Structures are given as structure tokens and as C-alpha cells.
Amino acid sequence: MAQSWLALTIGNSRLHWAWFVGANLQETWDTKYLPIEILDQLIQRWVSGILAAELLPPLLVSTLDSQIPLYIASVVPAQTKLWQTYPHTKIITLDSIPLLGLYPTLGIDRALALLGAGETYGYPILVIDGGTALTFTGANRNRNLIGGAILPGVKLQLESLSQRTGALPAIQLPTDLPPRWAKETSTAIASGVLYTILAGIRDFITDWHDWFPDSKIAITGGDANLLLTSLETQYPEIKDRLIPDFRLIFWGIRSLVVSC
């Protein structure tokens, strides 16, 4: 019988979870960050055999064994250190990723998403991750990292304008793409952030396809739907070439676990 196991990716904003049975994904969910002292208590309860209902869906708490293997990919060292107290934790590091040319400071989330996309859709592959940071990461058909880029994501750009200036307000983005030439401040902020991000995405995709015309392009992350909707209005020919997949990191973790 295939064994159950959990995957946890610790991002900059939330905890992302997946439950697998063997290679089959059963369920995914997100949980908020908890204060470190509370999370530490939950982990200690888990160690003693009591699954944390605050972190897992009710069905899983009643279904899973408290000694279930837990595979973690984290970009937050303080959280990683806490989870290492759970004896059935496997921390995924770059040296376990079967891609070539990885550099030491490459984020484990980017590496796993690239692996997951490549193993799912084939190489060469470009991954666009619209998370807290907006990242581009690509590999060629030989699984060799070509490189990538990092810039502040949509929400981070909006927050920086409201927090680092004296007069610009915090805004919520409109449902529809705003007019490019705005006549009031909130719309001008939305215009500036969105249109420059969309133009940047188009530019990176165009350059990537100059190098790899037959490459697939996958998009993931919390802002992926927003970006796809905006691209559909502004650059529909670009949007139609993107594969939305919000589970790329989990596919990457699965390829490591199942191949063990």
C-alpha cells in the first residue's frame, strides 16, 4: 500500500501544504504564519503524537499517523529550524535537486518549481512565479539552469509606495486593468505597477523564446491569476502561451520523494 506523506513549503507570506499518497496528490491547503512560540508548541505536540489541528484539515487530523513523513522546502530559516525538531522531517536542500548549474544562493522554491515544471511539461522550460517576489527561472533541454531574474511582486511594489513615501496611499488593485494614463493618484499607482510588470513579463518571454522557440512556459504563485487576467487584456497572445499551475513546487517535491 502506498504511504502517505506531507509536503510543506514555507514561503515569505504563508505556509503551503500538500498531502500525497505515494505519487498521488490528495489535497492542498494554505495556513497563515503563526507566532514562533505558538508554532513551537504545536510542533512539540506533534512530536508527542498529537497532530496539529491548527495546521491540518480536520479530516487529515483524524486520518493521518502522527509519525507521517514531512518534506519541507523553506525560504525562512527561523521556521526551518523549528520544524527540524519533528523527527520525521526531511529538509529539502539545493544539493538534492537533480538540475545542473544551480548556484548556492538560488532559492529552493525557485529550484523546486523549475524541477516540477520541467518534469511535468518537459524541458526546456521557463517558470514565472508571481509571489511576494516576481521571479523568472529557466532551464534548457539538458536540465541546465540558464538563469533568471527577481523583482518585487505586485503587492510588494504597492506596499513600498505607501510605506516609503509621505503622500501616496495604500490601494487595492481594481478588478479590471486600469487606464494607462490616469488622472488620480490611486489609479496612477495601479497603472504604473501593473503596466510595467506586464511589459516586463512580455519582454522576458520574448527573449526566452528567441533562445528556446519550442519551450513551454508555466506560471504559478499567488498573483498568477491577477497577472493572467491582466495579460489577457493587454497581451492576449502572451497569455495564451502560458500554462497556469499552482502546484509546481509540489510536483518538484514529488519527483524527489517518489524517486527515492
TrEMBL record:
Cellular location(s): Cytoplasm
Gene Ontology terms for molecular function: ATP binding; metal ion binding; pantothenate kinase activity
Needed cofactors: NH4(+); K(+)
Residues involved in substrate binding: Y103, G107, I108, D109, R110, T185
Pathway: Cofactor biosynthesis; coenzyme A biosynthesis; CoA from (R)-pantothenate: step 1/5
GO BP annotations, alphabetical order: coenzyme A biosynthetic process
One cellular-component annotation, GO: cytoplasm
Cofactor note: A monovalent cation. Ammonium or potassium.
Keywords: ATP-binding, Coenzyme A biosynthesis, Cytoplasm, Kinase, Metal-binding, Nucleotide-binding, Potassium, Transferase
EC number, UniProt record: 2.7.1.33
Described function: Catalyzes the phosphorylation of pantothenate (Pan), the first step in CoA biosynthesis.
Family that this chain belongs to: Belongs to the type III pantothenate kinase family.
The protein, known as: Type III pantothenate kinase
Source organism (scientific name): Limnofasciculus baicalensis BBK-W-15
Gene: coaX
